[in-house]
Amino acid sequence: xxxxxxxxxxxxxxxxxxxxxIVISLFTIALPSFAELIIKIRVDNEISSLNRLIFVxxxxxxxxxxxxxxxxxxxxxxxxxxxxxxxxxxxxxxNNKIFEPHDGETIISVKSAIADNDKLQYGKKRIGLTYSATxxxxxWGQNATFKYCPKGxxxxxxxxxxxxxxxxxxxxxxxxxxxxxxxxxxxxICE
Length: 191
Hints:
By secondary structure, the chain is an alpha+beta fold. It is about 25% helix and about 20% strand.
């Protein structure tokens, strides 16, 4: 019996189409979960970065025995409430929420702006967060919650609560709803 030397092994058209249908089905199922994972990672990274920046501000105030402010600066080096923009930590000797390098004030750290469509708020209209040399907030009315809300995905919003004592508390999800809440049970909602 002669063997056919021209016979090739491989996949038939039907086998290839079935394999492609399975791969497309799996991809269709996994894609939304992957997109949500990317958003969750982005939010977690921003909250961690902001948390480190707040720690830098507080620790610098304590170590240097001086006021230190965290805020977004405008083109005139004045704090404003554009928290989505670049955030700066600077020595604020006279506690006026204006960065004045000619008075010996220095920038300590900078955090880049958040994603374009996301939202970051500190309180309703707070323009800055200033720590005094004791590590407490410098002045009344500065305690509030930083709220980070990714556009179109409110269920992934996270926050950091700043107490008058200067202590920092991250929001967490303690239930099966997977929605972050503050220690007092309030949902993180950007306005």
